[in-house]
Amino acid sequence: MPDACKKFLKDETGNESVQLAVLFPIILLIVGFITDRFIQYEGVTAVSSAANEAIRYAVVAEDEKEAEKIVKETLIDRMDSSALGWCSSTGNDSCTKWGTNIAQTDDLGTFDNNKKIQLLINIDEKGWCNGSYMKLGVRAHKSSIFPSYESFQNLVRNGGPIYHQHTYIVTARIESNIKCGE
Predict the structure, then answer these.
(1) I want to staple 58 with a disulfide (CB 3.0 to 4.6 A). Which of 63, 67, 99, 130 is the partner?
(2) Is the CB of residue 174 less than 8 Å from the CB of residue 133?
(3) How far apart are CA 147 and CA 141, in angstroms?
(4) What is the model's pTM?
């Protein structure tokens, strides 16, 4: 070995390795947290983008049934391409693609209070006509590195999946050939 290498190894006291042993886990946690925030932001963006696109297509449909079909097809496609899913139980094997067994309601209160419902399609009291409003609510799960408080509780109690839950509600005016009040 060259003399410079021997001298370097001889003078090494090991202080740097202790410092690195203390700092490395902290740096790793910071990098993991930043990465998880990006994953969460991507999930929020994907859910809101999918819901906006679905309602944009749905409000120009001929009737309510066609609008519902358009919403489901659009959301399933966009959620699939964004790797958003749904975890229906406490086990890791309960997470599936978003469109599998969609729990749906037309009541905003039920959607707000029951976190197991994935889809809200609500047409105002005027019905499907030009000038009435459609409300679309979407809820999806995105896997996570660090658990949110809710999924941390689930993890501790049941060993369930770690995910972020994203909920987005949007309202749009229906554009129909049928005038309200006819």
Answers:
(1) 67
(2) yes
(3) 12
(4) 0.76
